[in-house]
Amino acid sequence: MSETSPRLRAELEGIPTYKPGRPAASGGPVAYKLSSNENPYPPLPGVLETVTAAAGAFNRYPDMACTELMSELAERFAVPVSHVATGTGSVGVAQQLIQSTSGPGDEVIYAWRSFEAYPIITQISGATSVKVPLTPGDVHDLDAMADAITDRTRLIFVCNPNNPTGTVVRRAELERFLDRVPGDVLVVLDEAYKEFVRDLEVPDGVTLYRDRPNVCVLRTFSKAYGLAGLRIGFAIAHEPVAAALRKTAVPFGVSQLAQDAAVASLRAEDALLGRVGSLVSERTRVVDGLRGQGWTVPETQANFVWLRLGERTVDFAAVCERAGVVVRPFPGEGVRVTVGETEANDVFLKAAEMFRKEL
Ligand SMILES: *Cc1c(COP(=O)(O)O)cnc(C)c1O
C-alpha cells in the first residue's frame, strides 16, 4: 500500500465547516427548532400532492433546463427567460457565481458577520475573502465595502436582509453603493428573506438589476416558500452571468420534485404569503416582547432576530435549550433565533425573560 495520499488542493485546508442549525431533540425536553430560519409550517397539501406525484417518476432524470419553472419565473418577474438560472438552493447558485468569477488571487468582498456560506464557498474557489465589519448597529457598512474594492475584486455579496442580524440596507444607500462599483465587478444581492421585508424603503433587487449588467439577484424557495429540504433557488442576472450559471450547473442538479414543488408553490403563492404574513406578525410580537424585557434587538426584516450576547452567547443558548427551543449561537458574538410557530416563540420569550432575570 502506498504511503502517500491523493493530493488535494491546498485551498481546502482550514475551510470552516458549515454548521447546520441543530435539530430539536426527540424525546428530550427540546421541542422546537429555531436554529435554521426554516419555515415552521408543513408543506401545503397541494404542493405535497404535486411532489408525491412527481416521486412516482424518480427513476427518470429531471428536466435539465427546468423549462416550466424558468418560464414561470421569467413571467412573474417580467424578465427574459435567458436572465433566469436555477440551482441547488441559492447557496448552490452563489457557489456557481464565485466559480464563474473568482479564483486564486481574486478577492470577494462581503460584510461580516453575514451568511456563513460566503467564507466557505470563497475559500473553496481559492479566492481571498475581504470581510468588512458591520457598523456598530449591525448593518452593512456600504461605504467601507466600496472603499475595500481593489482591481482584484471580482464579486461582492450584499445580504439584504442580513443573516444573522436581520438588518437591511435601503434604496438610496444601495444605489449610491452600486454607482461606486466598477462595471466589471459582480454584485450579488442575496435576498433569501425578501418576502419577509415590510420596510418599503428596502429595494427589490429585481428593479435594481434591470439597468445594471453587473448586478445579480439571488432568491430561494427555502424560506418563505417552505421548500428547504428540496434544495432549489435561483438567480436573475443579465446574459453573460446567467449563461455562466448554466455552464457551471451540476447537470440535473435540481430534482424534478424540487422543480414541480417550486412551480406549485408559485401557483399557491397567496396561501404561502399568508403564512409569511403570520410569521411577520409573530416577528413583531417577539421583538416587542424582547424589548419589553429590556433587550436591545436590532430592527429585523427577516424571519429571525439577533441578540448580541457576546461572552454570554453559549450560556443563553443552553438556557433556551433547557426551556425547549434550539437556537443558533455564534459563540462570542450573539444568538440568532428563528421566528417560528406561536408556541415556540412563547417558549423562547419565556426563556429569554428567565435569562434576563438571572443577570
Ligand atoms: C437561507 C439562506 C439562503 C438560502 O439557502 P438555500 O441554499 O437556498 O437553501 C441564502 N442566503 C442566505 C443569506 C440565507 O440565509
From TrEMBL:
<dbReference type="InterPro" id="IPR015422">
    <property type="entry name" value="PyrdxlP-dep_Trfase_small"/>
</dbReference>
<dbReference type="InterPro" id="IPR050106">
    <property type="entry name" value="HistidinolP_aminotransfase"/>
</dbReference>
<feature type="compositionally biased region" description="Basic and acidic residues">
    <location>
        <begin position="1"/>
        <end position="12"/>
    </location>
</feature>
<dbReference type="Pfam" id="PF00155">
    <property type="entry name" value="Aminotran_1_2"/>
</dbReference>
<keyword id="KW-0663">Pyridoxal phosphate</keyword>
<dbReference type="GO" id="GO:0030170">
    <property type="term" value="F:pyridoxal phosphate binding"/>
</dbReference>
<feature type="domain" description="Aminotransferase class I/classII large">
    <location>
        <begin position="33"/>
        <end position="350"/>
    </location>
</feature>
<dbReference type="InterPro" id="IPR005861">
    <property type="entry name" value="HisP_aminotrans"/>
</dbReference>
<dbReference type="GO" id="GO:0000105">
    <property type="term" value="P:L-histidine biosynthetic process"/>
</dbReference>
<keyword id="KW-0032">Aminotransferase</keyword>
<protein>
    <recommendedName>
        <fullName>Aromatic amino acid aminotransferase</fullName>
        <ecNumber>2.6.1.57</ecNumber>
    </recommendedName>
</protein>
<dbReference type="InterPro" id="IPR015424">
    <property type="entry name" value="PyrdxlP-dep_Trfase"/>
</dbReference>
<comment type="subunit">
    <text>Homodimer.</text>
</comment>
<feature type="modified residue" description="N6-(pyridoxal phosphate)lysine">
    <location>
        <position position="223"/>
    </location>
</feature>
<dbReference type="InterPro" id="IPR001917">
    <property type="entry name" value="Aminotrans_II_pyridoxalP_BS"/>
</dbReference>
<comment type="function">
    <text>Aminotransferase that catalyzes the conversion of aromatic amino acids and 2-oxoglutarate into corresponding aromatic oxo acids and L-glutamate.</text>
</comment>
<feature type="region of interest" description="Disordered">
    <location>
        <begin position="1"/>
        <end position="31"/>
    </location>
</feature>
<dbReference type="InterPro" id="IPR015421">
    <property type="entry name" value="PyrdxlP-dep_Trfase_major"/>
</dbReference>
<comment type="similarity">
    <text>Belongs to the class-II pyridoxal-phosphate-dependent aminotransferase family.</text>
</comment>
<dbReference type="InterPro" id="IPR024892">
    <property type="entry name" value="ArAT"/>
</dbReference>
<dbReference type="GO" id="GO:0008793">
    <property type="term" value="F:aromatic-amino-acid transaminase activity"/>
</dbReference>
<keyword id="KW-0808">Transferase</keyword>
<dbReference type="GO" id="GO:0004400">
    <property type="term" value="F:histidinol-phosphate transaminase activity"/>
</dbReference>
<dbReference type="InterPro" id="IPR004839">
    <property type="entry name" value="Aminotransferase_I/II_large"/>
</dbReference>
